[in-house]
């Protein structure tokens, strides 16, 4: 993909298969072509060469309007329509595709609840009355309105403060888990990528450097650039991706007295493991489900 | 003031003609300016050229423009209306272009990305937000035309210019003042009314 007047392509020689139902993160510095690449999917950018397939169909053979209505789109600048209420913003695509009024209203309330905004409080307010985080919640709701199977998110949380960003990241993971939406998510924030991604695609100067599961990429960066970008020597990052459940072995009568929750990340669990002389009991609620010790962590990091 | 009180019917007729001339010219001018503005708003080079041409028309002195139009259309009301339509173009088109360009680019990107056609985007996103600024352009054009329309008396089009120029010819200061006062008065009334409307529609 080369822009008119550009001396080199913004995106070049890219071949990427995005798995259905997964959250794929395009990661890289500004200007690496990740936004351009994602915008070829809904034809906001037309490639000068090459093909983009959605569900096996070349997007160039699909009417761009119909294509875009079937693909959710969330951008960093949010872009809520300032003269429309929150409900009108969320209901715009259903309205364009001709849903009944009652169905649109019901769907709007459902979506507001989905993004944790009380419908009775937010429905009739205007975007300018909302905080940035609330606005982007509406942005996400608007993108999901007609249940798209694909959702494109271009640095959606880049302008939000860390606490709000964390909460929206969790929301997106939950939505993706519940609805099975295929999400392509653009970011330059490594921690965000590691937290969200089923698969990370690292881009550099318009090319894909590595596409891999986060824990695999941290363990085996393909190039020094990937290693540096991800900070693979930061053990804490790797530990944050591992859960106690993944590393525990069968319950052990000799373990204890220290206990850990099965869902805790290793980053949280490490303190307990370091201060306990023997094996630690792993619980799931009140039930004992396993045992874990430092050796298991060492083995996981070595692998 | 004395002339106004002495001949209310005469003044009223001229005032009605004046208002009708401006209103008709403004309506026609807007109907022409709107499609031009939409067509050129997102094409900076063409927009500069078109606005340059319209600006040049605006700089032609009104008497000279009327003299040219009389050659084409003869004397009368519609010749004056034609001149006013031409003068209003640059004011209206410039404002329509500025209004459309003022719409937040993120909203345009979102509108397109969500699957709005160019027409849907224009009607649902661009127009509603551009409207207050467009209205500002209409107000400025209306006030300019109210003033310029006095010259229409030269081509036998009627209006308040008749009072002003007759007063000058007849050395009747009261008559000239009456005409001038009426022009100022409708300009002020239109300005206040359209400003109020602008405030109401501003989102």
What do these coordinates show?
The complex is a heterodimer of chains A (303) and B (203). Chain A is of the alpha/beta class and 303 residues long. Chain A has 15 helices and eleven strands. Chain A has helices at residues 34-41, 64-69, 86-90, 92-96, 101-114, 119-122, 132-143, 162-179, 190-196, 214-219, 224-230, 235-241, 244-247, 266-275, 294-302, and strands at 23-27, 53-54, 57-58, 71-75, 150-154, 182-187, 199-204, 207-212, 259-261, 280-284, 287-292. In chain A, the strands form three sheets. Chain A has a six-stranded mixed beta sheet, sandwiched between helices. A three-stranded mixed beta sheet of chain A has the order 9-10-11. Chain A has a two-stranded antiparallel sheet with strand order 2-3. In chain A, strand 5, helix 8 (162-179) and strand 6 form a beta-alpha-beta unit. In chain B, helix 7 (118-148) packs antiparallel against helix 9 and helix 8 runs antiparallel to helix 9 (173-201). The model of chain B has no long low-confidence stretch (mean pLDDT 89). The interface between A and B is medium-sized, with 25 and 20 residues.
């Amino acid at each position: 993909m080369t822009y008119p007047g550009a001396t080199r392509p913004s995106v070049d020689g890219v071949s990427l298969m995005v798995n259905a139902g997964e959250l794929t993160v395009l990661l890289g510095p500004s200007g690496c072509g990740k936004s351009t690449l994602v915008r070829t999917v809904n034809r906001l950018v037309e490639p000068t060469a090459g093909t983009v397939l959605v569900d096996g169909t070349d997007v160039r053979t699909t009417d761009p309007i119909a294509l875009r209505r079937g693909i959710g789109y969330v951008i960093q600048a949010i872009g809520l329509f300032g003269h429309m209420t929150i409900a009108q913003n969320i209901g715009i695509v259903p309205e364009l595709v001709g849903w009944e009024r009652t169905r649109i209203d019901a769907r709007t309330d459902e979506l507001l609840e989905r993004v944790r905004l009380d419908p009775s409080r937010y429905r009739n307010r205007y975007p300018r009355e909302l905080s940035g985080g609330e606005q982007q919640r509406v942005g996400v709701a608007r993108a999901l309105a007609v249940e798209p199977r694909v959702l494109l998110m271009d640095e959606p949380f880049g302008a939000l403060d860390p606490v709000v960003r964390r909460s929206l990241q969790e929301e997106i993971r939950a939505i993706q888990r519940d609805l099975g939406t295929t999400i392509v998510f653009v970011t330059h924030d490594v921690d965000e990528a590691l937290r969200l991604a089923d698969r990370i695609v690292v881009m550099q100067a318009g090319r894909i450097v590595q596409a891999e599961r986060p824990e695999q990429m941290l363990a085996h960066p393909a190039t020094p650039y990937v290693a540096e970008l991800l900070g693979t020597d930061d053990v804490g990052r790797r530990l944050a991706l591992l859960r106690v459940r993944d590393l525990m072995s069968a319950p052990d009568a000799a373990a204890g007295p220290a206990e850990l929750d099965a869902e805790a990340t290793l980053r949280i669990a490490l303190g307990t493991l370091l201060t306990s002389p023997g094996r630690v009991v792993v619980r799931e609620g009140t039930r004992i489900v396993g045992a874990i010790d430092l050796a298991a962590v060492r083995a996981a990091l070595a692998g | 003031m004395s002339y106004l009180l002495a001949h209310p019917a005469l003044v009223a007729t001229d005032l009605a003609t004046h208002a009708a001339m401006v209103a008709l010219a403004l309506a026609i001018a807007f109907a022409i300016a709107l499609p031009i503005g939409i067509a050129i708003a997102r094409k900076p080079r063409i927009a500069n050229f078109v606005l340059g041409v319209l600006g040049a028309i605006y700089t032609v002195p009104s008497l000279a423009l009327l003299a040219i139009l009389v050659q084409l259309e003869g004397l009368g009301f519609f010749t004056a209306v034609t001149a006013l339509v031409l003068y209003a173009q640059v004011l209206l088109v410039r404002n329509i272009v500025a209004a459309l360009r003022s719409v937040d680019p993120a909203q345009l990107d979102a509108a397109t990305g969500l699957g709005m056609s160019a027409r849907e985007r224009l009607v649902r996103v661009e127009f509603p937000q551009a409207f207050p600024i467009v209205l500002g352009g209409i107000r400025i054009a209306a006030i300019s035309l109210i003033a310029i329309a006095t010259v229409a008396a030269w081509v036998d089009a009627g209006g308040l210019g008749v009072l002003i120029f007759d007063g000058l010819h007849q050395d009747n200061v009261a008559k000239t003042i009456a005409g001038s006062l009426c022009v100022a008065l409708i300009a002020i009334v239109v300005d206040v009314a359209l400003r109020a409307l602008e405030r109401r529609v501003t989102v």
